[in-house]
Amino acid sequence: MTPPARPARPATRRWIEDWDPENEEFWQRSGKQTARRNLIFSVLSEHIGFSVWSMWSVLVLFMSPEIGLGFTPAQKFLLVVVPTLVGAALRLPYSYAVTRFGGRNWTVFASAVLLVPTLAALYFVQRPGTPLWVFLLIGATGGVGGGNFASSMTNITALFPQRLQGWALGINAGGGNLGVAAVQLIGLLVIATAGSTHPAYVIAVYLPLIVAASLLAALKMDNFAAVRSAPGAQREAARNPHTWWISLLYVGTFGSFIGYGFAFGLVLQSQFGATPLESASYTFLGPLLGSLFRPVGGLLSDRWGGARVTLLTFCAMAAGTTVLLLASAQGSYGLFVAGFTVLFVLTGIGNGSTYKMIPAVFARQAEDEVTSGHDASAAFARARRLSGAVIGIAGAVGALGGVGVNLVFRSAYSGPAGSGEPAFVAFLGFYLVCILVTRAVYLRRRPAGESAPERVRAGASRV
User: What SUPFAM superfamilies does UniProt report for this protein, alphabetically (predicted)?
Assistant: First the structure.
């Protein structure tokens, strides 16, 4: 007797119910092609979201008395802080939303809603005398672009087998992070060809791209039942100490990347009196290299372990920050730019390695649960659920690190000395804390005779 057919979902919603990327036969037969297709269009949407989110790091370079928008450096840093803050706040709800509405459906919405801040910025950015609060409000709506990262990463982590998640998450995040460099490169091209009085040209480039990304997501992406999370997944993740250790490390990597990316142009103007063209000539390079090296961090972590790569990265970031202090003391523009560019590369590697730690930590906990007699399928399903939730939480906390970076810069350059050196000392101290945490929590040797459950409770998983 033929079993009754499962009720079809509405034609406007495409759902894939059975998804098992750890099954090698399924993965080679059809899973790999489907996962990579969804990855491509996820990257496109996230890339444009990052560009809209970081657009104000470019627009503030145009704001001058020449176009009737003569804001102070402190006011410009505030314009950069606001979208960073809103983007960070939206990451948790965006991470949850993709598990509720599906990867395809939410990506369509998350792409289309970018039209709101883009059209608003296009209307006001060349209206002389527009008050600061209007731009702060528009910048806040631009924070929706920052939320795209969390929903995209939560979606992608469930589509690939654990052995490839470092690569997949690195490609997805790196392609998105490139949006920071892309909008800054467009700003450079506009300043170099049309001058520093036409910020609307930068904004106008993104209107057709937003429409295209929304349509392609609707036509080419799928919803996956495997992405759905059981109620309370984020609450369960919040009770796990690894969530907060990894979030702290992600503040050091992604918080530095997005904070430096948003602030670099203003730092060059405030520290060295650089012109808009001089600032724009260098601001895109760091985010570009940092984005390109994020997948490298994932690949290195797939081979050597995320904790090892993260530890070495923080050591190098501490050394790079010391170079910035030296360049500031000597007033060396070239050394300062070179040091900052190296820091961007390191943040990219660290972003990839830190995110690789998330599925690895929870997969190790699942292995320990199986060793203790728990059901294997339930343990690994829980690990995937928690990984998706932690990706959202860590993404939100990490983005708040970008807010902190810009607030520290704003305070440093608003002071009597008007120098970034106090900010770099603060960043150096934080990187040293991250080195200690990575070493103590994730690379501490397992004591002889310690059982797997004891090791999990102690928070000393080696990843």
Answer: MFS general substrate transporter (SSF103473)
